[in-house]
Design brief:
By secondary structure, the protein is of the alpha/beta class. It is 34% helix and 18% strand. It has helices at residues 2-11, 17-20, 57-65, 73-80, 109-121, 132-139, 190-203, 231-243, 267-277, 299-308, 332-350, and strands spanning 84-89, 124-127, 145-148, 153-157, 169-173, 179-183, 211-214, 219-222, 248-253, 256-261, 287-293, 312-316, 327-329. Strands 5-6-4-3-2-1-11-12-13 form a nine-stranded mixed sheet, with helices on both faces. A four-stranded antiparallel sheet has the order 7-8-10-9, covered by helices on one side. The radius of gyration is 20 Å and the shape is globular. Bound molecules: the ligand O=P(O)(O)OC[C@H]1O[C@H](O[C@H]2O[C@H](CO)[C@@H](O)[C@H](O)[C@H]2O)[C@H](O)[C@@H](O)[C@@H]1O. The site of ligand L263DTV3 has 24 residues, from strand 8 and strand 10. Residues 90-93, 98-100, 102, 105, 128-130, 213, 215, 220, 222, 224, 253-256, 258, 295, 297 line the site of ligand L263DTV3.
Amino acid sequence: MRHNIAKLYHAIKFQRWLGKAESIEYFSKARHDKIEPESDPVESDPDKPISIPPVDPKYISWLKEHPSALLAFPGMMSTIKGKQIVVFLDYDGTLTPIVDDPERAFMSDAMRIAVRDVARHFPTAIISGRSRRKVYEFIKLDEVYYAGSHGMDIMGPSIQLDSYECKYRKQALDKQGNEVTIFQPAREFLPAIQEMLSELKEITIGIPGVFIEDNRFCISVHYRHVKDNDYPTLENKVLSVLGQHSGFHLTKGKKVFEIRPSIKWNKGNALVYLLDTLGFAANSNNVVPIYIGDDKTDEDAFKVLKSGGVGYPIIVSSTPRQTLASSSLRDPSEVLSFLIRLARWGEENSSQ
Ligand SMILES: O=P(O)(O)OC[C@H]1O[C@H](O[C@H]2O[C@H](CO)[C@@H](O)[C@H](O)[C@H]2O)[C@H](O)[C@@H](O)[C@@H]1O
């Protein structure tokens, strides 16, 4: 296992990077994901009669490659027993269903209780594309760590700054008055992000349905409500704003363009940063990270676990998808069942 964690670190060239780096490595050139409109399930109207969808044979065969984490749960736990579990959770599409209005992606009370109960037994972090502040407002739990802006804004365990001197870190107090360390590797991009926000708002004013979300270290341009005819115009306008600012690139999520600083830092790096600052890198032979996420940006974290041969990368999907995850959960309701079981397992095993 120690060898596996070393591989994990090597995979993203982290190796005590935190202690040394004074600047974050930039992409050699701006990388843009291939931009294609994408469909995904949106939470259905609760008043509609329930119809059982036909079983998709492709999904059934995909499940053989990515078995249900619920069915795999007993096997997983028998190998984990005695080791330290650390839980990482994405937000949209994982802890809440995808909904039409990004401002109304509220988490259910049942999910909040399940996440809280998991966090009472295992260190738990949320790693989201949203701003850290926004995701905290949705989750409202003080028991978990938060990494917003796709990992570019982490409020994590307090670390000794003299041994980890770096211009991207600062000490702060959380809402409970506990010392935490804030790590923001894209801090110098903030002025340019504010400029881009104003430019995007102005340039897209004539396109009905566009919603621009300030995620602090990145920007989401939502087009879920944009007419198909207007999509190419919107895409051109977004690319034209991007073209005026060097050091940024575009990725694509669920009906959303995401503009991000071109630094080599993603959800995978955030996962390793949190493991390291939680103190598990030095004593890593007993650590089992579990990461649950539904989107393309979560693949960066899956990749870290897969290449290190450690932990459990779990994708949330009800359709067959190209993924590095080893197992799957169909939707947030299955995520809820998984978290409830995990918390119960933690309860039973902590009292032994
Ligand atoms: O990393 P995540 O926590 O999954 O954040 C990714 C993006 O999630 C949000 O947008 C998505 O969810 C919305 C609410 O369900 C939905 O309306 C939208 O179409 C989806 O793309 C969030 O609003 C974005 O800023 C995040 O980048």
